[in-house]
Amino acid sequence: MGYPRKLTRRFRAFDNFAISFTIINIISGIFSSFGLGMNAGGPRILVFGWIGVAVMVLFVGAAMGEIASAYPTSGALYFSAGKLAKRHRGAWSWYTGWLNFVGQVGGTAATDFAAATFIQAFIAMQWPHYHVTTQRSVLITAVILLLQALANTYTVQLVALLNRISVWWLLVGMVVIVVCLIAVPSHHQPVSFVGHFANNTGFSSSLYAGMLGLLVTSWTFTGFDGSFHMSEETVQATVNAPKGIMRAIGYSALTGLVLMLALVYAVRDYAGEASAAAPPVRILIDALGNGTAKLLLLIVIGAMLFCGLANMTSNTRQIFAFSRDGAMPGSRWWHTVSPRTRTPVKAVWLAAVCSLILVVPGWWSDTAFYAVVSVNVVGLFLAYAVPIFLRLRLETFQPGPWNLGRYGKPVAAVAVVWIVLSSVLFMLPQASPITAKSFNYAPVALGAVLVIATVWWFATARRRFKGPVSYGTPDEVAAMDLI
């Protein structure tokens, strides 16, 4: 790919799959957004929407996997955008990289803040006199980010080990939660309950409410570009990275459907649970009792912590690669690698600090915090769309060993259409009446990112950033190899 090697290839096929599976994280995704689905469509959208959206995401993953096989680098999306563009390669690469960066930073911030919220819920269940506040959530999030940065500072073997553990934590945890929800309650909803529709959004249109409910699955299926970003540290990356993406999406779709069904059929008081501060937690308490619910909540919290860790790992590799090509302020700092651990330590701490900066507004306002992190999903999926769209425009695409053959372009076309549709959904109002608190600030946050990137591009970047850098011929690069 034209770069001297700085990172060690210690990730095996399972490790590469594990990072995307952990970032998708069915437990974290479903538990943090289940309440939205209960109010926007109900069980009908939660279950059948999960199936439909998962199929669409498989198209996105397959299109991304084909590109990952052709361009297996840490730069991933922005690198491939620069290589696939016919003209203005620097601009395509620039915008893709910044959308990816902001989306990943927002993802780490949102996941860790959700973990802090659930930690406070657990504490309040254990000690009823504890007072839950957003200020405490911010402080807990800061501690979580510190611990995750420390874990990422050490060798890539530690990160790989933690990701392996996270896979089994998710799978075993899912089985434990499902078995408890099936075996313990004396009453379950009838089979027909899966067709129940609910619209508590405040909007009169059932179609609109149901479309909003699809966001539950879309929110869950983000971050699978992690396998792409870990390419330079994965053995046989041209095959294992795309396989990691597809396996992570496929296994998450199947196991997530089982968990979704278990939660849906365990509902007892639909109105009360849908209006609770944390609906899935309320479902666990009503169905299983306080003691068992607390134990299962620990599984959920652990899953969220693993998710945040994997998010940060993926983010640091994107920062490392983007800086290697001179696109970040202070680039010469962020693409350095520790000679002892062979990890981009400075990029790790930059990722942690940036995520903390996004969390800090939550000290004063929930609305301000959600306005900042709402760009997470939109930023990520738009970054996914750019290289796939550019691949569609090419008359001839040189595929890697893992490819879709003649189905490559049709799959890419479906992926782009779905990304555009889901991105529009993420920017629409999600509750009525629309107030300063209920307003969806995703378009504002996305607009701010694009304005800043555009001003920066025309002010200075277009003269110095031309897209991915080539350090020389394969032989010259091999001579510079640092490992």
Annotation keywords:
Amino acid/polyamine transporter I; mainly alpha; disordered C terminus; single chain; globular; 483 residues; 21 helices
Summary of the model, kept short:
This protein has helices spanning 13-24, 26-39, 43-70, 76-84, 89-126, 134-153, 156-183, 206-213, 215-220, 226-229, 237-265, 270-274, 279-288, 290-324, 331-334, 345-359, 366-373, 375-393, 408-426, 442-464, 474-480.
List the helices and strands and how they pair.
Blueprint: H1 13-24, H2 26-39, H3 43-70, H4 76-84, H5 89-126, H6 134-153, H7 156-183, H8 206-213, H9 215-220, H10 226-229, H11 237-265, H12 270-274, H13 279-288, H14 290-324, H15 331-334, H16 345-359, H17 366-373, H18 375-393, H19 408-426, H20 442-464, H21 474-480
Helix pairs in contact: 1-7, 1-11, 1-14, 2-8, 3-11, 3-18, 3-19, 4-5, 4-18, 5-6, 5-14, 5-16, 5-18, 5-20, 6-14, 6-16, 7-11, 7-14, 13-14, 14-16, 18-19
Subcellular location: Membrane
Membrane topology: Multi-pass membrane protein
Organism: Streptantibioticus parmotrematis
Could you describe the 3D structure shown?
This protein has 21 helices and no strands. The protein is globular and about 65 Å long. The protein is mainly alpha-helical. It has a single domain (13-397, 404-463), classed as Amino acid/polyamine transporter I. The two termini are 16 Å apart. Helix 4 runs antiparallel to helix 5 and helix 5 crosses helix 16 (345-359).
First-to-last CA distance? 16 Å
Q: Which CATH class is shown?
A: Mainly Alpha
Mean pLDDT across all amino acids: 88
CATH superfamily: Amino acid/polyamine transporter I
Distinct helical segment count:
21
Q: Which spans have pLDDT < 50 for at least 5 consecutive residues?
A: 476-483
DSSP strand tally: 0
Largest sheet: none
The tally of structural domains comes to 1
Structural class assignment? mainly alpha
Rg measurement, Å: 22 Å
Question: What is the helix content?
Answer: over 70%
Dominant shape: globular
Q: Which fold name is given in CATH as the topology? A: Amino acid/polyamine transporter I
Order of SSEs: HHHHHHHHHHHHHHHHHHHHH
Membrane topology: Multi-pass membrane protein
Keywords: Membrane, Transmembrane, Transmembrane helix, Transport
Transmembrane segments: 12-35, 47-71, 92-125, 137-155, 167-187, 207-228, 248-267, 287-310, 347-364, 370-390, 411-429, 441-459
InterPro entries: AA/rel_permease1 (IPR002293), Amino_acid_permease_CS (IPR004840)
